[in-house]
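Tokenised fold entry reproduced for absentees:

. . .
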Amino acid sequence: MTETGELTYKRVHRASPELLFDCMTQPEHLIHFWGPTGTTTPLDGIVVDLRPGGAFETTMVNDADGSAYTMRAIYAEIERPHRLVWIEGEVEGGMRTEITFTQLSNGDTEVVTHQTNVPAAYMSAEARAGFATSLDRFEKYLAEITA
């Protein structure tokens, strides 16, 4: 059995929990930011069956060489607009991602992404930096659609 860990990412956005939740669950939003810098996720590469037990799949394409990586998960919990949980069963141990959307008193929303059963390869500084670039892309996209 491989060693696993956990990761937590926090960001605060000037947007409602409803908009942020929709951005994380609707393919027409996901295509704008899903994946690290240097990748694109085409619309035909996204499956969202937004219900417990439903599929969540994304196929990211490397802009440089065209190689593709598909993430396959099953939604475990959906509480719009406050919580979203999926499990990637193909990742050894079943990596679990939980995203919470908490509205702050000033109207901003704190988004916390907490991952457990994270394989060692995903824990590397390089992998974490790549994940952070996708969060940066999300922030930039939000600025464009809320301006």
About this structure: The longest helix spans residues 125-146. Strands lie at 4-13, 39-40, 46-48, 55-62, 68-79, 83-88, 95-103, 109-119. Helices lie at 17-25, 27-30, 120-123, 125-146.
